[in-house]
Amino acid sequence: FKRESPDPSVPLQAPAGVAFQEVRRQSPRIIAAVALIVVAVVGWNVFQRINLIRAPHPSDIVSTPESWTLGEVPGQEIGLGAPRAAPPDQTTPALYITPGLEEQLTGISAEAAAANPAPTGPVQRAFNPRGAIYGASATASQVVIQAKKAAALVVRLGDGQVLFARQLAAGEAWRAPVGVAATVDVSDPAAFDVYLNGEHGGALEAVLTPLTQLNNRATALARTTAAQVAAQAEAARVAAVQAASDVQTQSQQTLAAGTAAIQ
After folding, report:
1. SS3 234
2. What are the residues facing 260 on neighbouring strands?
């Protein structure tokens, strides 16, 4: 009836009843409990932050150590250790050879190759540049003189003209040109290593050394190495031909035996 015939002259009354009265009585308690929980959480966080705060105290280091200020004193010497050797290469895997493939390609079994190894000469340590390199280019030189420690190196031509003169530091080297008649003059022969064709050839034997002598040694060593390589290649070729001949002979014998058995 109120919905069909509303009477705007009578104002609406607020909701009333037992349920609304119970909510009004419990509201202060609920608000107080929520406020108490919020205050407890905030107070706990503040208490933890206060405990983490440390009072400022002076540094335990009374004075700065001298090693921390190395180089600030004018004229102070700095000690450097000897250079260490380069680490071995660990990125190149070992070459994998399929079992049986080498025998099919060359006709030489792995057991025969292991039983008759090719003779090889001793391999000396290779030239390792550890400093500046003076003199000729790498393609126009067979002899390299490298300093093991600081020493003087002077190279004079036949007419007395100085071709090269320098106080070499440890690790620095000089490449000798090919076809130049000169004399190597050093302050200490034991302080220099000689490398022939990239391999160590010992130290200088005297204070004065003819450059032609070193170049001749390098040329003779290169010829010997080339002869050894050619001999090894020829031996491998002969062995391959012999193995192929043996295989062909065995095949012919097998074929002949099979033909005779059929007949």
Report:
1. helix
2. none
